[in-house]
Design brief:
- The protein is an alpha+beta fold.
- It is built from 13 helices and 14 strands.
- The strands form 3 sheets. Strands 5-6-11-8-10-9 form a 6-stranded mixed beta barrel. The protein has a two-stranded antiparallel ribbon with strand order 2-3. It has a two-stranded antiparallel sheet with strand order 4-12.
- The radius of gyration is 33 Å and the shape is elongated.
């Protein structure tokens, strides 16, 4: 049978039984919409994780100072003054290391005119913005002389700027940190929230030497809480991590079999774990939503079986007039495929609509990808063929005389 007459007969049969056709499509509409929506939510979650991970920096290793014991209480890593600026300089000389940024800081009250804001003040150096891949919206980075002389200069985040200066340009203005004046030399670009939900734009950067010697101080000279290290590429991170461990053990006089007073973490491992988790979540959501497609396929089979029973005499008449079993098989398969295709298209429209509503209400970065649309189409058509085959085969195997006698 030619394709055009075949499709015409299938469409005519669907038109005659509009309500039944829509009820048959309903399962697939819901199934396709669920698949599209779930995959979009999974993609949105993965994109959100990737964006947060990218904001942390690439090829990154974090060296934390060790834990501290006080009065029988053991504090977390980063609490003991076991890392120094000299350690950071020594790490900088290792092969495969392209940038090093020591850091130390704490909360501080920032004042400009009648406005004030409590935020996190962090001491670091020029490499910090390079490691974090964090460009400036305005102004300039710290200079070498400002780091060396512990200059009273600051780079502020967008949240701090909005609360202190409103819409005015903060670069070149003087703010007060702990009652001392600091010249604002730079304004950070917008970064957003971190992994833990903290506002990364709510920060003030000052030279690390300034933080250690003028703001927060320490009974241990030039001690820092952490050192950020950027490798030249992902392939060298494991080697650089091992060399940092060996170097700091040597500098701190700690043998290989003893517990170190520092902690070296390769953030690429955390990134890979986060990416793997979101990928598994996307697959799981898609698999759960696909169950509804199978349910929709079962609905197609049931309705098609009912249709075969109701149209038994019609089938017998067609065969008596010369239609072959293959023609009957093709006719019912075409009807199943058109129902599946129609359900898929309507489900796609519904799924995209649901995602747009979810984005507006919950502000999620969910995205409908071409791959998810292709998957939905392929699966729905496969479901149509698979579950439409048995009723079509049953119709094709009817005997013309028995079919004509059917009441």
């Amino acid at each position: 049978m030619k394709l055009k007459p075949l499709l015409g007969e299938a469409l005519n049969a669907m038109r005659v039984n509009r309500l039944r056709t829509m009820l048959t499509m309903l399962g697939l509409i819901i199934g396709v919409a669920a698949v599209i929506a779930m995959l979009a939510v999974g993609n949105g979650a993965r994109n959100a994780v990737n964006a947060v991970v990218a904001s942390m920096g690439s090829n990154l290793i974090i060296v934390l100072s060790g834990p501290q014991n006080s009065g029988g209480v053991r504090f977390a890593s980063g609490s003991a003054p076991t890392l120094t600026l000299e350690d950071a300089d020594a790490i900088r000389a290792l092969p495969g290391v392209v940038a090093v940024a020591p850091g130390s800081g704490g909360p501080g009250q920032i004042v400009y005119g009648p406005n004030n804001w409590n935020t996190m003040v962090m001491g670091t150096n020029q490499d910090y913005l390079k490691i974090r891949d964090w460009p400036l919206a305005d102004g300039s980075n710290f200079s070498t002389s400002e780091i060396r002389t512990a200059g009273r200069v600051a780079i502020i985040g967008q949240t701090v700027a909005a609360n202190l200066f409103g819409s005015a340009d903060p670069v070149g203005q003087v703010i007060r940190i702990s009652r001392s004046p600091y010249l604002v030399v730079g304004l950070l670009s917008v970064r957003g929230q971190s992994f833990g939900g903290q506002d990364q734009d709510d920060t003030v950067l000052v030279p690390v030497t300034t933080a250690l010697r003028k703001l927060f101080g320490s009974q241990f000279a030039d001690s820092v809480r952490y050192i950020m290290v950027q490798g030249s590429g992902p392939t060298v991170l494991d080697r650089v991590q091992a060399e940092i461990d060996s170097l700091l053990r040597q500098r701190h006089h700690i043998s290989a079999h003893k517990e170190a007073d520092f902690n070296v973490r390769n953030l690429t491992q955390i990134v890979n774990a986060a990416a793997s988790t979101t990928r598994i979540m996307s697959l799981l959501l898609g698999a759960i939503a696909s169950i509804s497609l199978i349910v929709g396929g079962i609905g197609i089979m049931n309705i098609m079986l009912v249709s075969v029973s109701e149209r038994t005499r019609e089938i017998g008449l067609r065969m008596a007039l010369g239609a072959r079993p293959a023609d009957v098989l093709q006719q019912f398969l075409a009807e199943a495929l058109l129902v599946s295709l129609g359900g898929c298209i309507l489900g796609l429209v519904l799924g995209v609509g649901v995602i747009e509503v979810v984005k507006l209400i919950f502000h999620l970065n969910s995205q409908v990808t071409p791959s998810s649309v292709l998957i939905a189409f392929v699966v729905s058509l496969t479901v149509g063929v698979f579950f439409g085959w048995y009723p079509a085969r049953k119709a094709a195997r009817l005997e013309p005389i028995d079919a004509l006698r059917y009441q």
